[in-house]
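DATA SHEET
Item: assembly model
Revision: 1
Owner: S.N.
Input lines:
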Amino acid sequence: MRNYQSVLILKPDLDEAQVDQSIEKITSIIKKFGGSILKLDNWGKKRLAYRVKKNKFGYYLNIYHTCEQGGVPDLEKEYQLYELIIKYLVIRLEERDIERVMSQKADEAESAGAEEAGGPKKDVAAEKSDKD
Amino acid sequence: MKNPTKKKRNLFTQKICRFCSEKIQFIDFLDTKLLKPLISERGKIVPSRISGNCARHQRQMTEAIKRARSIALLPFSVEH
């Protein structure tokens, strides 16, 4: 079992529910090849540096996962066939890289805990958006 | 002014690798803020001769830029 990083760009004209659905679908695809997700980042909508399949924007997903040896070509093929993905990149990570990523995650959790004082403000903003 | 060559040499200050000076161990291709200054106006990779990067970091940086390009975080070329 090796560690990999997949960066996926989804179509820009999706709403949040569709993005969540596609995340579930991608999770099931990864599980199909004997892998499990270690960390998933949703970067939201970003401007692309160049046009991809006539799209100027895209939803970025950054997934750290494991996969069975030899499963990556099949995984890439599944990505190609999934119509909501417009571009993908799968790279293999060495053991020290994945350790670095996981330690980063721990740092982020710590800093989030430290910033709890700023928490209520964020909640207010979330409520506002719900009302809208 | 007795020794013009010496004066000329002083104009070229020693360039220092920015990754070494900031003690960056790993260059992440998702970190576009870090990589943006290392591509030219046209989107080309700046050579180490100009940027002053050490060979090891220049190699890592080149790979990071190429990966960022393939996932549309950085441009392959900028049209004028």
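QC remark: Chain B has a mean pLDDT of 81.
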